[in-house]
Amino acid sequence: MKAVILAAGEGKRLRPFTETIPKVMLPVANKPVLEYVIDAVKNNGINDIIIVVGYKKEVIMEHFKNYKGVKITYVVQDKQLGTGHALLHAKSHIKETFIVLSGDNIIDNKSISKLINEDSKYSILIKEHPNPSKYGAVFIEKEKLREIVEKPKEEVGKFISTGIYKLPKTIFGIIGELASQGIYDLSSTIQSIVDKGEKINTIIADLWRDIVYPWDLIHLNETMIQRTPSSLGGTIEKGVTIKNDVSIGRDTTIYSGCYIVGPVIIGEGCEIGPNVCIFPSTTIGNNSVVQPFSQVGNTVIMNDVHIGSGSVIKNSVIGRGCIIENNFSSIDGSSTIEIEGEFKKLEKIGAMIGEDCNIESNVIVKPGKIIGRRCNITSLKIIGDNIPSNTKVM
């Protein structure tokens, strides 16, 4: 059996973090989301994978060029018209029943196992969700799919489609027929199959998580970090306190006086401390520095980040390559955030800072504020509004 992974999209609602990389390559617990999907497939004995790429495809292809244990074939979707349109690009590589997954959703091994071992022509993984109106809501009758409604206007039912299916190769004829009518989404294809009287089995996924907004990185990181075992590498000086599950990469130095409470992941080539406190659900990417007397908690820090001393960072996302000088504070609290015309009320949210920002000393960022990539913020500023990319705040 082969697997097709759809990974062509950008993820506009995740800007500024997707301005230079596709959504599927955003790091969660120091691994790209797409890597979790590939591993779940590989761990179920599927070693032949077709990945449909598009936006910033080079980033994906470079990361997985030496990935062991699977054969990856890339096909390019130049225009992102829809999931059905994306799947159609894999047609020439499929000769039998296959599974299709989204590259931007994390799925676990057990759920994929249940899907591929289901004795049926068509199967779909579904998941209970508190907000089905944001996804494809599914309606079930005797464990069979009765109807799938893409982003219903009303909150109806409790199950959603994960976008993960087991399908026969004949699906491509149906997708092509609908595409000729200007219908490009896979949900419409599935509904047309149901309308013709075909039975589609529904299987409830164990772990399935989506990333839609920047703060979803924090919540998903909090989930996945608990699945990472302890592994202490590098150099840990005397006087360091480590509690619970903590993973520290090679060539990393944890200086004396640091206090780390897991689950925490610290990447390779980092310098932490002295006297730094790192609290649960924090990941720090490779080649990053956190200078003395700083506190970090429930935060995603990507690769090549420098955090100055005396800083306090909670419930935040710090993009790759940021240089943040001393006494930086991301205040966490409640905030209403607008993304692509949608307003979201959040609690305990800090700052979201795009890559390659330079933030000078004694800067405060208020809850829920989004700072774009390549921004420069001079000392003694209080950031109370979102800052677009490539902005200088003086």
Tell me what the structure shows:
The protein is an alpha/beta fold and 394 residues long. It has two domains: 2-212, Spore Coat Polysaccharide Biosynthesis Protein SpsA, Chain A (Alpha-Beta Complex); 223-393, UDP N-Acetylglucosamine Acyltransferase, domain 1, CATH 2.160.10. Helices cover 15% and strands 35% of the residues. It has seven helices and 40 strands. The strands form seven sheets. Strands 1, 4, 5, 6, 8, 9, 10, 11 and 12 form a nine-stranded mixed beta sheet that branches. The chain has a nine-stranded parallel beta sheet with strand order 15-18-21-24-27-30-35-38-40, with no helix packed on it. α5 packs across α6. The mean pLDDT is 91.
Please sum up the structure shown.
The chain is of the alpha/beta class and 394 residues long.
Structural class of the secondary structure composition? alpha/beta
Uncertain runs with pLDDT below 50, 5 residues or more? none
The CATH architecture classification of the largest domain is Alpha-Beta Complex
How many domain modules?
Answer: 2
Strand content: 35-45%
Q: How many β-strand runs?
A: 40
What name does CATH use for the topology of the largest domain?
Answer: Spore Coat Polysaccharide Biosynthesis Protein SpsA, Chain A
Q: Gap between N and C termini, in Å? A: 57 Å
Tell me, what's the shape?
globular
Instruction: Name the helicity range.
Output: 10-25%
Give the overall average pLDDT.
91
Radius of gyration: 22 Å
Instruction: Report the sheet with the most strands, covering strand number, pairing sense and barrel closure.
Output: 9 strands, mixed
The H-level CATH homologous superfamily of the largest domain, spelled out, is: Spore Coat Polysaccharide Biosynthesis Protein SpsA, Chain A
Total count of helical runs of at least 4 residues: 7
**What's the level 1 CATH class of the largest domain?**
Alpha Beta
